[in-house]
Amino acid sequence: MAYDPATRTVLLFSGIGSAGYLDDTWSWNGTTWRKLSPPASPPARTGAQMAYDAATRTVLLFGGFGLLSGGPPADGGQYSGFSDTWSWNGTTWTKLSPASNPGGGGDSLGSDSMAYDPAAKTVLLFDGGDCNSCGGQGQTWSWNGTTWTRLSPPASPPATIWSSMAYDPATKAVLLYDPGECDPCRGREGQTWSWNGTTWTRLSPPASPPASGGWSMAYDRATATVLLYGGTSYLYPMVTHLDETWSWNGTTWTKLSPASSPPPSGGASMAYDPAMEAMLLVGQGYGDGQLNDTWTLTAPSRPAATG
Predict the structure, then answer these.
(1) Which ranges of 127-286 would DSSP assign to H, the alpha helix?
(2) Of 108, 111, 199, 305, which sits with the fewest C-beta atoms within 10 Å of its C-beta?
(3) For residue 302, is it within any domain?
(4) Burial 49-75 (b: 16+ CB within 10 A, else e)
(5) HSE-CB of 224 using CA atoms within 13 angstroms
(6) Dihedral through CA 240, CA 243, CA 247, CA 251, nearest 10?
(7) Dist. CA 136–CA 104, nearest whole Å
(8) Domain with 293 in it
(9) Domains: count for the chain
(10) Could you tell me if residue 109 is inside a domain?
């Protein structure tokens, strides 16, 4: 999900329904959702990354995963990862043909996170890669409007899944939260990283969200903080869903206590809607079934939430 300034709406693609993965495109005008009927669309999937590319004035979509064969996810169908790139011009989706692509594919399902970096005028993507190898590192890619380029920063977050990323104008850096759900050699430890356009720096905040995946992250212009909501902790056979809200002020994470919250779950989509001056959250997918709830978190009554 991403806010599209060209249409002044929040754009949402994909999801999971009772019949399986979806190829739906929806727009939010601040009051209601409207299902769109573009002449072309990406294949059905979930977990795709979206960001508004201000340099090309389009919404960029990358990756995600769907079913290669079989029925709905609950029926044990075979997963298929995607490494394709699509752009939205306000009317239709267009499949792009970059000279190179981030890894994608079945070994990195859910490992990508993406955000626009206005300083570099590029879209930044972090590919968590194969998180089952001890000591592995993720890959950092940038999109210049035509192709993906793999970067070689001197420092990088470790291989991970379900990381979350957002640009923080207050620090003029891209913020990444690594939930610590992956590398078997480093234990379950959440990590906060910052990208300055050249390299990643691991931060040491005095407080951090728990080591859980499935967080939703977005910059909240109303409070000038980055918000994180979720998540889902997988300690098989135990799976724990959270309904925690955290804010980042450039130095530390603070756990908020909203008067009400969406139900415990993970995998929701979140974006800031300037028209409402509120955070918008929809479609939690890792809780007890798939939800299509729409929630807002508004100022100045923070930290109140409505559903």
Answers:
(1) none
(2) 199
(3) yes
(4) bbbbbeebebbbbbbbbbbeeeeebee
(5) 6
(6) -20
(7) 16
(8) 205-245+262-307
(9) 1
(10) no
Residues of the chain with pLDDT under 70: 17-19, 67-79, 104-110, 130-136, 181-188, 233-238, 284-291, 299-307
User: Can you tell me which residue has the tokens 């299902």?
Assistant: 35
Q: Output b/e per residue, 277-305; b: 16+ Cβ within 10 A.
A: ebbbbbbbbbbeebbeeebbbbeeebbeb
CA end-to-end span of the chain, whole Å?
Answer: 18
Cβ–Cβ < 8 Å for 155, 201: yes
Tell me the residue type at 228: L
| Residue 113: count of CB within 10 angstroms of its CB | 27
Amino acid present at 163: S
Give the pLDDT confidence score for residue 75 in this predicted structure.
46
Is 78 inside a domain boundary? no
Is 13 within the bounds of a domain?
no
